[in-house]
Sequence to fold (382 residues):
Amino acid sequence: MEDKLFTNVKHVTLADKNNPFYLEIAGHIDDVVVEYETYGELSPAKDNAILIAHALSGDAHAAGWDLDWEKYNRPWRENKPGWWDTIIGPGKPLDTNKYFIICSNVVGSCYGTTGPSSIDPESGRPYGLDFPIVTVGDWVNLQRRLIDFLAIDKLLCVIGGSLGGQQALEWALAYPDRLHKCAILASAPRLSSQGLAFNAVGRHSIMHDPNFNDGNYYDREAPSNGLAAARMLAHITYLSEEGMQHKFGRRLRGKMQPDFDFGVEFEVESYLNYQGQRFVERFDANSYLYITKAMDYYDAAEKWGAGDIVEAVKRIECQTLVATFSSDWLYTPEQGREIAQALVKNNKRATYLSVESKFGHDAFLVETESVGRFLRAFLGSK
Fold:
């Protein structure tokens, strides 16, 4: 029987002036606070730890019910469990009676880990666009500092979907001796040119909002229209044509005939408007800029194999699972399969799964029965 899981947010300072956090591209950050959550108990041998890496707009609250939502002014969490609560918890595929689950928020975000909305100790004001550019590699390096802080030598597994999947891949490449297994869901070695284009339009919408003010908007009205438009655009890439047709079709909202004006008339329009407005209530526009840039820059083949993914994955020593979803057109099955094929060419231990789904890129969050089943089997395999 599954018990309800309750969680508390944790914070730890992982960098200061005596131990700066150096970045891949340039510069360093002297003060880095990381927000994270844990679920379950670390075994005496410290051999049951699983790190979960979140996607673009995700956070450390991966499961359970947040007991600190009022303290940290996050009202959207009051009656909503963590973003992967169907997967993590007692008796669930990532069983917290068996595993010690860790999820931390990435640097550059706006959910408790240091980012552009944090106070710059030098100026006493929010960093804004003075915050340095961060990368997927930086996120993994900071996660490694957290794992060191928790005194864990080797992770049982790193699991991530979408942008979290790229973090999982980076873990296997950057720290091959620090994890036994790696699960990469709905992801790829790099973002396609089409994906780059969608991110570029999203950032354009934010940066050309009249309220953007070169990123210095924290004491004034935020660029909400630009951020909402960016989210609406991105949300389309998370769905599939089949899924959208099934859910919305061309149905009008609350009427039989159109008004023939420029108001919101179709159900799909109403849905996207809702998604955009909900997003601006919980996310920072500058963080969206930084995280999408990190997403754009990541290229595992270029970084580790001079452009050759087969050469890059020679570094990987862990058992690896790659799962793709048939209707995902942001990180396509063909792109994900590229990782698995490269591993096989290097005689690495690899499993590839292609999951039939109409839910597009969001399938790794929605297809909980399939995802839970194959994660349970992967973790239980030798």
About this structure: The first helix runs from residue 136 to 149. The mean pLDDT is 96. The first strand starts at residue 6 and ends at 7. DSSP finds twelve helices and 14 strands in the chain.
